C-alpha cells in the first residue's frame, strides 16, 4: 500500500523497516521512506488523542524521571555536563533576550538558560511535567494549544531538544516556528540521525526509532531540505555524542542481550569514532536562523 509523505505529500514511498513498540505495548508498526524528500515516517500514526496511552505508563515515567539506579544517574550526570554546551549552542554570540523551549519537560534546560540571564517561555504537552517545571523555573510553562496564541516575532531563540521527531503535523509546527521567531532569530533543533552507525547496526531495534512516540525520522539531507524550504538559513550543526552510548544501551536492552551496558558502551564508542570521519552522529543539533 502506498502511503502519503506527511511532509511533501508524495506517494512515492517504500517500506524501510517493520518493527514494534518494543518499549511499551509490543504493537507492530512500519517505518516508510519517502522516495522524493527522504523523510522516514511511522505508520500507522496514532491520532494525537490516541497517542496518550503510548506515554501513559509508569515505565515511561520512571524511564524519564527516576534518578535511582546506576544508569539513570550516569545519564543525568552526563545531561548536566552537556547542559552548558546546549546553552552555548542556543545563546552564544547573542545578547540576552527571550527564548522559547518547545517540549521543555520538567524545565532542566530553561533553568540553565534562566541562570544565564535569559527570559524564557516553555511549551510542554505533559500536565505532570508542567506542574513540576512551574515549581522549578520563573518561565511561564504553557501547553501545546497555547503555542498558536503567542505573538508573532516575540522570540530571539527557539529550541527543540528531541521534539521534532514527535510532532504529528510538521507543516503547521514549522509555520509556527517561523511566525514566532524574530527575523534573524535562531532556531536550534536536535533530532536522532537515522544515517548513524548505531541506527544501521541495530536496525529495527534502534532505540531512537521509538515508535510510535517518534513519528518522523530525520537525516541531515531531510532536515536541511525541510527547514531551508521553510524560510530558515542553515548556520551550523553539532553533535550530542553521549546519545550514541545511551541509545546503544537502550537498544541492547531491547534486543535482550546480556551485559547491555558493556555492549552498548562499545557500540556507542564505535558509532562516535566512525562519526568523527563521516559526520553521521547518533544525534545531531542543527542551528538555523530565520531569514531576515
Ligand atoms: Zn516526502
List the total number of helices: 10
CATH superfamily: Vaccinia Virus protein VP39
- SS class: alpha/beta
Biggest β-sheet: strands ordered side by side in the sheet: 6-5-4-7-8-11-10
Shape: globular
How many separate domains? Answer: 1
Give the distinct bound molecules.
Answer: zinc ion
What's the helix-strand series?
EEEHHHEHEHEEHEHEHEHHE
Oligomeric state of this protein:
single chain
Report the sheet with the most strands, covering strand number, pairing sense and barrel closure: 7 strands, mixed
Content of β-strand: 15-25%
How big is the Rg?
18 Å
Q: Report the CATH C-level class.
A: Alpha Beta
Report low-confidence residues grouped into runs of 5 or more.
59-63
Overall strand count? 11
How far apart the termini lie comes to: 42 Å
Percent of residues in helices comes to: 25-40%
CATH architecture: 3-Layer(aba) Sandwich
Q: Output mean pLDDT.
A: 92
Amino acid at each position: 500500500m502506498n502511503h502519503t509523505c506527511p511532509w511533501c505529500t508524495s506517494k512515492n514511498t517504500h517500506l524501510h523497516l517493520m518493527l514494534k513498540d518494543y518499549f511499551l505495548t509490543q504493537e507492530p508498526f512500519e517505518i516508510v521512506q519517502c522516495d522524493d524528500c527522504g523523510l522516514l515516517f511511522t505508520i500507522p500514526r496514532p491520532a494525537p488523542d490516541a497517542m496518550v496511552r503510548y506515554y501513559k505508563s509508569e515505565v515511561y515515567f520512571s524511564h524519564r524521571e527516576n534518578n535511582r539506579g546506576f544508569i539513570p544517574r550516569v545519564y543525568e550526570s552526563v545531561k548536566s555536563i552537556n547542559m552548558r554546551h546546549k546553552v552555548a549552542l542556543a545563546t552564544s554570540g547573542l545578547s540576552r533576550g527571550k527564548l522559547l523551549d518547545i517540549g521543555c519537560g520538567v524545565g532542566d534546560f530553561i533553568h540553565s538558560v534562566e541562570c544565564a540571564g535569559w527570559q524564557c517561555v516553555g511549551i510542554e504537552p505533559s500536565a505532570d511535567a508542567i506542574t513540576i517545571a512551574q515549581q522549578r523555573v520563573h518561565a511561564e510553562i504553557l501547553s501545546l494549544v497555547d503555542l498558536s496564541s503567542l505573538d508573532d516575532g516575540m522570540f530571539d531563540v527557539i529550541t527543540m531538544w528531541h521534539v521534532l521527531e514527535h510532532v504529528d503535523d510538521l507543516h503547521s509546527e514549522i509555520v509556527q516556528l517561523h511566525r514566532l521567531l524574530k527575523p534573524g532569530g535562531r532556531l536550534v533543533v536536535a533530532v536522532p540521525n537515522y544515517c548513524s552507525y548505531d541506527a544501521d547496526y541495530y536496525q529495527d531495534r534502534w532505540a531512537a526509532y521509538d515508535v510510535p512516540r517518534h513519528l518522523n525520522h530525520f537525516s541531515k539531507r531531510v532536515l536541511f531540505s525541510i527547514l531551508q524550504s521553510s524560510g530558515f538559513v542553515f548556520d551550523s550543526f553539532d553533535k550530542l555524542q553521549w546519545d550514541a552510548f545511551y541509545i546503544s544501551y537502550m537498544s541492547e536492552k531491547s534486543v535482550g542481550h546480556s551485559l547491555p551496558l558493556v555492549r552498548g558502551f562499545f557500540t556507542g564508542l564505535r558509532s562516535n569514532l566512525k562519526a568523527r570521519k563521516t559526520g553521521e552522529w547518533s544525534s545531531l543539533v542543527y542551528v538555523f536562523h530565520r531569514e531576515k
